[in-house]
Structure formats: C-alpha cells, structure tokens
Write a structure and sequence with these properties.
heterotrimer, A mainly alpha, B mainly alpha, C alpha/beta, A: mainly alpha, 2 domains, two-stranded antiparallel ribbon, C: four-stranded antiparallel β-sheet, 10 helices, 10 strands, 23% strand, globular
C-alpha cells in the first residue's frame, strides 16, 4: 500500500511539472492572440530541435554545428509536399520561372503526404548515419566533428541556392497555402498545427527522457566522459555516437517539418552556418544535459529575439554575442542547471540531504578530454 | 589545355588565399587546440583597417595610386588585429583552457560582436578599397595572362611562410613557442611562461588574419560578413593539414585550392565543394590526424 | 585443452623504436600469471596488443584458439577479455549503480539497451554491489568516491562481465595499506575460475600471490618460472640495474609513487 503511494508520489515529482506545462501549452490557444500563438508554435518547433541537440551535445559531448542542415532537410521535404499540394497539380512557380517544363523525377513522389512525412524522418536519419559512421569510425572528435558538420551544412545550403530550378534558389520554397486540404491562412488550421506541435514536442520529450534514463543514455554520458573506457567495456562508441547523431538529426528534421506550415516559407537562410550555431545557444542558455533546459532555452532565446531584434537590431546582436560568451564563461550550467544547483544547495541546508546526489551533471570538461585524445 | 593551365593557376591562387587565411588559425589551433570562430572577423577587421588606412594616410603617402600606403597598411593590419587577438586571449580564451568546444562558442560570440561593431561604425553595405595602380593588369606568360594581384598574393604568402619559418626556428620566442606546443608542462617546468607564449601566439595568429583581410581588399569589396565566406574552408584546411604543422597547412591549402578549381572547371562550384568535402572525410578515414601530424605513442 | 592465450611472435615499434620484439608466450586455462619487468620492458604495450588498442605489426594473438589480433577493442571484450586499468577508470558523472548498469549490457544489441534490465540482470547487479561492498553507496556519483572505492567499483564492473581472461594492470598501485588488503581479497575472489594475467610492480604483492612469473625485458621474455626461482635468477637481477632483489623492491616502489601522481594530475584537468 505505502509503496504504491510512494510510487505515485515519485511519479508526480518526476512528471508533475511536465504534465502541468503540457496542459498550459495545450490551453494556450484559448488565451493567446493568433499572432502570438503562431509565434509560440514556431518556438516550440525550435524546442524540438533543441532537445535533439541536447542529446548529442549535452549528453553526448559532440557539438554538432549541422543541426540547421537537418532542420532544413525536414523543412524542405515537407515544403515540397505542401508546394505540390498548394499548386494543385500545376508546376511550382519557381520552376516555371526557371523555364522548367515538367516536374523533376525526384519531386514526383512528394505529392504523396505519406512519402513526404516518411522522408522527413528517413532522409536525415540516413544522412546523419552515413556521416556519423565515417566520422566516428575514424575517431574524429571534439572540434573536428563540429567543423565537419559545419562544412556539410555550408555545402548543402550553397547547393540549395545553386540549384534554383529544383529548389527555388535563394528565395526557397514560398507561397505555401494549404496543408492536407486546409488553408494555411485559416486560424483553425494554425491552431491545429500549434496543437500538433505541442503534442509532438511532448512525445519527443518523453522519448528523449526515457532515452537518457535507459542504459543507452548512461552509455552516452559514459562515452562523453571517457570514450576509451567505453570501448574497453565492450561497446562500440561508433554505434552509440552514430545512433545518437541520427536521433538528434531526426528531431531537428521533425522540428523543421512542423516549422514550415506555420511560417509558410522555407529558404536556405534557415539552414545556413549561422542559424546552426544559434541552435547551440538555445541549449547553452537553457542548460546542457537537462532536457527541460533545452526547451526553456529555445523558448527564452527566441522570445528575446522576437521582442528585441525588430526594435533594437544593433543591441540585440551585441547581446547575442555577449550571450555566447556569458553562457560558457559564467553560466556553463545554463538557466535550469544553475536553478537546480541553487535548489540542491538550498535543500541541503534545509534537511541536510546529501548534495552529491542532486548535483547536476557538468559536461563542461568532457569535451576537453575527448579533444585531447585526438590531438595526441 | 590552356583552360586547365588557367584553372591550375587559379587553384594555386585560391590555395594561397586559403593558406593566408588558415595560417593564423593553424597557429592558435596547433598551440592551444583552440578553434577561433572569430578568426573570420579578425580578417574583416584587417580589411577595414586597410580601408581606414587608405582614407586617412593614402594622400600623405603619395596618393592611392602609388600604393606605399598599401605596404604600410599590411603592417598596420597585422599590428591592430594582433593586439586585438592578444586582448581576446587574455580577456577570455585563457579562462576556457581545456574546453575547446566552449571556446568555439565563446569566440563565435566575439565574432558576432565584432561584426555588429563593424556594422555600427562603417554601415552594413560593402565598401571598396582602391588597389594600387601597379597591381592592376597582368603578366603575359605566353598562353596565359596572370593577374598581378594574384601573383602579389602568392608572393606575399611565400614571404609570410618564410617569416614564420624563421620565427619558429631561429628566434628565442619561436623556440619557446615550439617547446610549449610539444610539451606544455615540461616547457613550464623549464621556466617558459606558457601563458605569455599563448597570448603572443594567439596575437600572431590574429595578426596573420589581419594581413589576410588586407589582401582580400585586392579581390573585391569588403563588408561586415567578409570573414564568414572564407572561414569554413579555412577550418577544413586545418582539419586536413593536421595540427601544429606548417607544412601540413601549406599542403592542405594548396590541395583544397587546386582541387576546388580543377573540379569546378569540369563541373560546378557547388559540386566541387561537395566533392572536396567527401575527399577530405575519406582521407581522414585513412589518416585521422591529417596530412602531417606530430606523432607520439 | 587449448591454451587460453597465445601470443605468437608479436612485434611492435613506434617510429622505429622497438617496444615488443618477437614476444612469444602462452597461458593455460585457469592460470594465474604475473608479469614483471623494468620500466620500458613493454608490459603495458603487451596489454594494449592483447586488448586490441595497438595492432601488432607482426605476429598474432590467439584467444581460446581464435585469432583476435584483427578485432576491434570492443569485440575483444565481448570475446571475454576484461582489462583493469592502472588508474581507476570509471565514469565520474554516473552513479555507482549506473556504472555497473553500463557494464552489464555489453553483449546486448543496441536496441536492447533502450529497454529495462531483466530481473536476473538486476539480481546480478545487486549481488555485485554486495560483493564489492558498495551497496550503501549505490546512488552516489562515482566521481565522489575515494580512490579505493573507485578501484573496487572498477573491479565490480569487470566482475559483472564475467570475463574468461582478466588482465590487471598494477591493481594495487597507489593504494593505502587497508585498501590494498581489501583489494587483495577482491582479487582473490575474481581470479577464481578464470585465467588472470597481472602486471605488477609491487614485489610484496607478487610474492604473496604469484605462482608463475614471467619477466619481460626489452620487449621480449627474459625468463619464466616460479617466484623464488626468478628471484635468484642472475639474469633477472642484472636487468634490475644489477642490484640485489631486496633493492629491486625499493626501485619498483618508487616507480609506483611516480605513476601515482602523474595520472591524477591529468585527471583533474
């Protein structure tokens, strides 16, 4: 009897905040204006990206600067479908402008929503798995991994710009008007998209949380701390890292796919080198190796950006720069990490609970050690 | 045939520009294992120093056409960005020692600030620096016409490499640098002030970026985001070249430059970039530590 | 019965410097074998070769009759070779429990690692916790354990994997007297029913446990035999700087002391 009660209490402390926030987000459409709801929905797609990035960077110690690429893949794949649907069988406008006569072969299956959604998941999975396998296999670590993912992002964004007839070039894919038969301009559709985003974010959050608590999650952290030891424990770090990289890529891609219908456009600018690094700051601000932190960070930074960047673009740029420096130099634990640390200290003073068990994980030094290994 | 020759020359020219940009990066990376994301912005700063130098001193130094100002601007850019680099090392980077990923992010933040500062001071649109008249035109080499600007860049890179070589191998400061690079603890134990060496080396790397920026004014207009266009390629040079090796950096820059130009000639610029990327990743399968790496057990 | 381990004419050199020179030896099933030798004799490199960290440039390693010299490190572990490192290497940001948990699933396929542990695995884990005496420390972060506790945890991580052959690299280096005794008992426990190869500097420890001792010198086997025979072997005395074997102990202890400080300095960073 008591154990059952205890179990329930543990469940509540464990998942209570999640349930409360989930309900708040689900009820938001009743309170927020159309414009604000749309904005929040957009930020929540970024939160999905941030969760993926947190898995690979916060937990795995691998700083991917290529999340923008996967975000873009998901966004483009889904936008291709929406474009065909919006056109109602006609050739997309940018193709007409570049003198194309018929739909290119690789565009054709995207007329099917199932195919497009499947590609949103499979496409980035394959790209990340192949790149990850080769990079991790040759034991490329630390900043090398960051540089290589960054270079790939640059190449893809240049390719998208260069292949104007197939991708819409610099403008990207624009004028998306319907989704599954509903007009994107209809507020009802937008509410539906918002709610789908909340639910998908919730599901991904739960899955990510289960992952970090599984043995795989422990091994991921273990690999971050001491990769050689993991190898001598009988695991292949290549598998662990590649799997995580692929999962994070799928998260980014799903975020991208949900982003497109809420914004109505996707252009190569969204997946360039700089946006990819911006994604990192979301996680850094929120707190690495805490999943809540990733979500909080994505919401905070983007809310700040939309509040200030329009009115004071100069100040915002300086602030953003300072944020990067401050986040690593002064608050490496981020908002959530710092809060938890303060809370643990406060709790320890209150009822002298052992601090050590509450202490948040600090991935800060892990990356340093990984790097050393490669250099030596 | 002529086309290939021209592409070969273009490749070497591109390689030398890449090399100029990567030299400074390789320096700080080789010594401190620090990837300086603000390196591109140092290049931009060097370019704007040249711009300001031209506007302020060109008339005093015999006019824009004569180009004496340009030679002096190279030194000015080196010194100005070098000091900026030292300030950055002392004020920020040394606190992040041993955390390369964090350093990468922090220096990216510094880059953002520098970019915005340039925008605030000079405005967002690009500005043009007028090149000295003796650099326009080209050398007629039979089949090809080799632009003087490109030749000047290649010559300047050679001079820089020579200077670096002399610095590393013939001066006491250079020897201290190499000592710290090979074994930090040991060098410290022998009385080398490794912190100071770090700051100086980082400053040197930044200064080299400044020179690169100065040179880039010859090629086209300059703007606040000048550096970002080149920086990713420069990183790939460092990855391919291996750490802490001048020779590796030189080889990598030339290889990437020539491959890019030659592949671009038969396909497109994008395909060339993609193929070069695939080749680099493939090469790292075989030699993960790059072309030339310091080996140890 | 096949030998559990056969190292056949293995050579390794780094940049022209020969570390292992035609190294050749074998171990029987269930044998407890000690390796000693002066610094630079190639002891650690030999372990690196067996565990696949370094690939032999010539020769091969047979485990249970199978050639393992081409396998990756983690495959070799899965074959049943466990290695205990010189410095306690555990995962500092995981708890004691989680460390053991991580060690447990090493033969599982990746998808299985996302699921929960089976009941047997859970039992085994708690048994192991009892055995290494860390039951009440189970949820403490491993980074906060004392040096000795870390060693025991690492031994526990090995125990839980039930390796057929265990490689121990200076298992008692840098321990206090009390910790050493406790570790000795634990080691006695884990060497039961399996083959064990120990590299050790501490002669006192060697003398206490050793049956067969192999002396390495310049990357090759100098001699092999029971401890008292080895101690009086003139060749062995000569390689240890030509001193009497009582002084050998002093020298090797000093080496231990040096090694003890170095890795810790690195770990702090």
């Amino acid at each position: 009897m008591t154990s059952q009660k205890n179990g329930f209490r543990t469940f509540l402390t464990d998942w209570g905040p999640f349930i409360i926030w989930g309900v708040i987000l689900l009820l938001a459409p009743m309170v927020l204006s159309e414009f604000r709801l749309n904005l929040l929905g957009k930020f929540l797609t970024f939160a999905i990206v941030a969760i993926g990035l947190d898995l690979i960077w916060g937990y795995g110690g691998m700083l991917s600067l290529g999340q923008g690429l996967f975000f873009g893949l998901g966004a483009y794949f889904f936008a291709m479908h929406l474009k065909l649907e919006s056109g109602g069988g006609r050739l997309p406008d940018f193709m007409v402008w570049s003198g194309m006569k018929e739909l290119p072969l690789f565009w054709q299956p995207f007329a099917s929503p199932v195919f497009a959604i499947a590609m949103v998941i499979i496409g980035p999975l394959i790209v990340a798995a192949i790149l990850g396998y080769f990079v991790f296999r040759s034991r490329i670590q630390g900043v090398y991994f960051s540089i290589i993912t960054q270079a790939l992002t640059l190449i893809v964004s240049i390719s998208l710009i260069g292949q104007q007839p197939y991708t819409g070039g610099t403008n990207g894919i624009t004028n998306l008007s319907t989704i599954f038969g509903h007009s994107l301009a209809d507020p009802q559709t937008q509410v539906g998209l918002y709610l789908s985003t909340v639910i998908i974010l919730g599901v991904i959050y739960i899955l990510a949380r289960l992952l970090t608590r599984s043995r795989f999650g422990r091994l991921l952290v273990a690999t971050r701390d001491d990769e050689a030891r993991v190898r001598f424990l009988g695991y292949s770090p290549v598998t662990i890292k590649t799997t995580t990289f692929a999962i994070s890529a799928v998260c980014a891609s799903i975020g991208g796919a949900l982003f497109v219908p809420q914004v109505g456009i996707i252009s190569p600018a969204a997946l360039d080198v700089v946006p990819s690094i911006m994604m990192v700051i979301w996680v850094a601000v929120g707190g690495r190796a805490t999943l809540v932190g990733a979500v909080v960070g994505a919401l905070l930074v983007n809310a700040g950006q939309s509040a200030f960047s329009e009115q004071f673009p100069n100040v915002w740029q300086y602030f953003l720069g300072a944020l990067f420096v401050g986040a690593v130099l002064l608050f490496p634990q981020g908002v959530v990490g710092t809060y938890r640390m303060a809370f643990a200290r406060w709790g320890a003073r209150g009822d002298s609970a052992p601090v050590e068990e509450e202490a948040p994980e600090a991935p800060v030094t892990g990356s340093g050690r990984l790097m050393q290994e490669v250099v030596e | 045939m002529v086309g290939w020759l021209a592409q070969g020359f273009n490749g070497i020219s591109l390689g030398s520009i890449l090399l100029m940009i990567s030299l400074g990066l390789a320096f700080s990376f080789g010594l401190m294992k620090v990837i300086n994301m603000a390196h591109g912005e140092f290049i931009m700063v060097g370019a704007y120093v040249t711009y300001v130098f031209q506007n302020t001193f060109a008339d005093m130094l015999g006019g824009v056409e004569l180009g004496l100002w340009f030679i002096l601007a190279i030194f000015a850019a080196f010194i100005f960005t070098g000091i900026l680099g030292i300030i950055l090392e002392i004020g920020l980077i040394r606190y992040l020692y041993g955390r390369p990923l964090d350093t990468l992010l922090a220096t990216f933040g510094v880059g953002l600030v520098l970019q915005q500062a340039a925008r605030s001071i000079f405005g967002a649109p690009n500005v043009q620096v007028v090149s000295p008249s003796w650099l326009s035109g080209g050398l007629n080499a039979g089949l090809l016409i080799l632009p003087y600007k490109r030749l000047f860049i290649i010559a300047l890179v050679i001079v820089l490499i020579w200077a670096i070589y002399v610095y590393l191998n013939r001066t006491a400061a250079g020897r201290r640098l190499r000592a710290v690079m090979q074994n930090r603890e040991m060098a410290s134990a022998l009385g080398v002030r490794s912190r100071r060496v770090d700051a100086l080396t980082f400053g040197l790397g930044a200064g080299l970026a400044g020179i690169a920026g100065c040179v880039l004014t010859l090629i086209g207009p300059i703007g606040p985001t000048l550096g970002t266009n080149y920086i990713v390629d420069a990183f790939m040079v460092v990855v391919l070249g291996g750490t802490g090796s001048l020779l590796g950096t030189i080889m990598a820059a030339l290889i990437i430059g020539v491959f890019n130009s030659v592949i671009e000639f038969s396909t497109t610029a994008t395909v060339a970039k993609a193929l070069v990327f695939v080749m680099i990743v493939a090469f790292l399968q075989w030699r993960p530590t790059g072309l030339v790496a310091q080996r140890s057990r | 019965m096949t030998n559990i381990l056969e190292v056949n004419k293995v050579s390794v050199s780094f940049d022209g410097f020969t570390v292992l020179n035609n190294l050749d030896f074998s171990m029987e099933q269930g044998e407890l074998r000690f390796f000693i030798g002066p610094n630079g004799a190639g002891k650690t490199t030999m372990l690196d070769i067996i565990t696949g960290k370094t690939k032999p440039q010539a020769g091969e390693v047979l485990f249970d009759g199978e050639n393992i010299s081409h396998l990756g490190e983690h495959r070799i572990v899965q074959c049943g070779i466990g290695r205990k490192f010189q410095t306690p290497s555990i995962f500092g940001s995981l708890s004691v429990f989680e460390n053991l948990e991580a060690a447990l699933g090493f033969r599982d396929y990746t998808p299985q690692l996302f699921g929960p542990m089976s009941a047997e695995e859970r039992d085994l884990l708690h048994e192991t916790l009892d055995e290494i005496g860390l039951q009440n420390r189970a949820h403490v972060r491993a980074g906060l354990l004392s040096h000795g506790e870390k060693q025991w945890l690492e031994i526990g991580m090995l125990l839980i994997q039930k390796p057929k052959l265990l490689l121990l690299d200076e298992p008692v280096a840098g321990m206090t007297r009390r910790e050493r005794d406790r570790t000795g008992e634990l080691l006695l426990d884990i060497i039961k029913n399996r083959s064990v190869l120990v590299v050790e500097h501490d002669m006192e420890f060697v003398r206490k446990f050793a049956r067969t001792v192999t002396v390495l010198h310049m990357g090759n086997v100098l001699c092999e035999g029971p401890m008292d025979e080895i101690q009086n072997n003139p060749q062995v005395i000569e390689v240890y700087l030509g001193k009497a074997h009582d002084e050998v102990r002093q020298v090797s202890k000093k080496q231990v002391a040096v090694r003890r400080t170095a890795p810790q300095a690195a770990a702090v960073h």
